[in-house]
Specification:
The protein is mostly helical. It has a single domain (5-116), classed as Up-down Bundle (Four Helix Bundle (Hemerythrin (Met), subunit A)). Helices cover 80% and strands 0% of the residues. The chain has six helices and no strands. The protein has helices at residues 5-14, 17-23, 30-54, 58-75, 78-89, 95-116. Helix 3 runs antiparallel to helix 4, helix 3 packs antiparallel against helix 6 (95-116) and helix 5 packs antiparallel against helix 6 (95-116).
Length: 117
């Protein structure tokens, strides 16, 4: 269903596939819409997070990290949710922004792969 074993492991590392499939409520066409909304929303939230980091606005970092975590948890994007949660509680750890970017890139790739199937 999701390609070879290596690809399946990558998907499982960043996305709770069962959670995402549950959100479809038996309508596979919903996947594309969910994925596109998530990609757009998280891209915007990440941009706001970076602005907050650049301004050294800790409350802004916490707010945007919370929004990223919450949205990611709701769709089953576990890797982004985990790193955003860390940043939410440790907003001074700027290196987490790089980890978050990596998690988002892997998650976006995984979601696009799922959406294409």
């Amino acid at each position: 269903m999701f390609g070879d074993d290596a690809e399946r492991i990558d998907l499982a590392a960043v996305v709770d596939v069962e959670r995402l499939l549950d959100l479809q409520h038996g309508h596979p066409e919903v996947m594309d819409s969910l994925v596109m909304m998530y990609l757009e929303a998280t891209t915007t939230l990440m941009e706001k997070l970076i602005v907050s980091v650049d301004r050294e606005d800790l409350s802004g970092v916490v707010r945007e990290a919370y929004r990223l975590r919450d949205l990611s948890e709701s769709i089953g994007a576990t890797a982004v949710a985990a790193v955003a949660g860390q940043l939410e509680w440790q907003p001074r750890r700027a290196e987490l922004v790089f980890d978050l970017r990596e998690a988002m890139a892997a998650t976006h790739h995984a979601l696009l792969t799922l959406s294409d199937e």
